[in-house]
Amino acid sequence: MKKGYWRVAGLALVAAIVIAILLSCSSGAQENPATVVETVNQVDAHPRPKDDWEPAAVDMLIYGGGQVRTGAASSARLAFLEGTVRLSADSIFTVKSSVTRQEQLVSTLFLQEGRLWADLTTDQPHEFSVETGSAVAAVRDTRFSVRVAAGETLLSVAQGQATLTAQEQSVTVAEGQQAIVAPDQPPSPPEPMSDEERKLWATEGEMPELAPPPVEMWGDVSCTLEGPAGDPASRNPKTAFDVTVQDRRAAQVVVETPDGQTILVPPYGDIFGQERRFHRRIAGLPQAWGTYTFTALDADGAPLPGAVASDVYVGGREPDPPANVRAEMTDAGLLVTWDPSPAIPGAFDPSGAPVAGFYQITLVGEGVGMSYGWHHESRLPETSHLIPLRRQDFGQGDRGQALEELQDSLYYLTVTAFSRPPEGTAGRSNECASHDPAEEIQIRVEGGQVRVEGR
To answer: What's phi and psi for 418, nearest 5 deg?
Structure first.
């Protein structure tokens, strides 16, 4: 009796082993647990579904159904046979399954909240997917990131491509693109990575080459003086802000003055610059030797990443305005002459070596704005200039319209002296612009005829 019992039990054990082997062979699946390879600050895990949460440690294995979570200012990195996954701060994800099936690696993760960065590097055939509450990202041979926040899923791809699926609709997200799935919505059309996303890839994603290029931005603070030669402070002094931003998203610029004030500078375009240019004048001279900081803002008032410039007003470089301005109409155009402004060594000396400062001519019409402009920054100490009658006679410094192109109006011709900050100082571009309104000349254009009417 006892011998028969053990014989039956032994046969049952062998049968169970055989059945397990057969089941294993029929499924062809071998579990590949993920390995914790790095933890920063607070990282917890439970390696198997029924395990309790415990502090994660390097070399800890995370099996199917196991979870990892990170706290604030924390991160974790896990190694899969397909590659590595890095979990950002305040994130939680589950290894739903990670197996080898029929010689193919198959892994499925579930990101509940937060962000992960994945770098798949294996040459072995594989299928790798990340599920969220609203979407599924299926990838292979790629480097990608998935973020879940407020029920929204964002997928961005740095290398390769991925498929994002939601509401039974799929889109292919190529290298350098991103797509979003809002709750209960299909995926958005893929679009180029935003600057914010590229910046995150450069830092958290550990791909500095994806950092958005710095925004080309130029900012200048200077003074303007309107009145006769003499004491600059008596010539209606103003502070001028001129900014150029090579980014179409720029909607306005905010300036922080040396004493902590903030001033908004609106868009402005004239014949000297039609790109994203901004200009404003306020009463009073700039604060000498203080730093003015310029920051470009988008339409929502948010700073554009990297769009910052600064300038220092040196002070004490205020030139006298050009005097005895004269204009004479000739067959070739309008010849303008003036007496030179006194030189200021290192600041205003158009005939010096190196050249410091320059003269500028403008024609501003009533109701039509600035129509013509010229500024001289060559090595020749000119105190005269011909405003061309025909466009084909324009030189390098001529801007706007030729005389024969001007519409009928009364125009005011102004000659201005611009000084520069001294070499070796923190000042840049223009330092001060000075002209005398009493020296403005009225030019009448009527019926295609141009005549000088005097002051």
So the answer is: -115, 130
Q: What does DSSP say about strands 126-131 and 67-70: parallel, antiparallel, or unpaired?
A: unpaired
Containing structural domain, residue 329 = 323-454
Q: Tokens 């993760």 belong to which residue?
A: 109
pTM above 0.85, yes or no: no
Q: Give me the phi and psi of 8, to 5 degrees please.
A: -65, -45
Are residues 81 and 32 in contact, defined by beta-carbon separation less than 8 angstroms? yes
Residue carrying the six token digits 């005389």: 403
Residue among 163, 147, 157 at smallest CA distance from 198: 157
Cα angle, residue 440 at apex, residues 389 and 339 outer, rounded to 5°: 85
The answer as to whether 332 is a domain residue is yes
Contact predicate 166/145, CB 8 Å: no
Contact by Cβ (8 Å): 433, 417:
yes
Cα distances (Å, whole numbers) of residue 197 to 19, 61, 89, 246, 330: 51, 31, 16, 20, 60
CA distances from 419 to 53, 431, 434 (A): 70, 5, 9
290 and 147 in one domain?
A: no
For each successive 10 residues of the chain (455 residues), what is the average pLDDT? 41 37 52 97 97 97 97 97 96 96 94 97 93 90 94 96 95 96 95 91 93 84 91 86 88 94 88 76 92 93 88 88 94 94 87 82 91 73 87 90 94 94 77 94 93 90
Q: What's the rounded Cα separation, in Å, for the pair 207 and 403?
A: 55
Examine the domain organization and report whether 107 and 232 are in the same domain. Answer: no
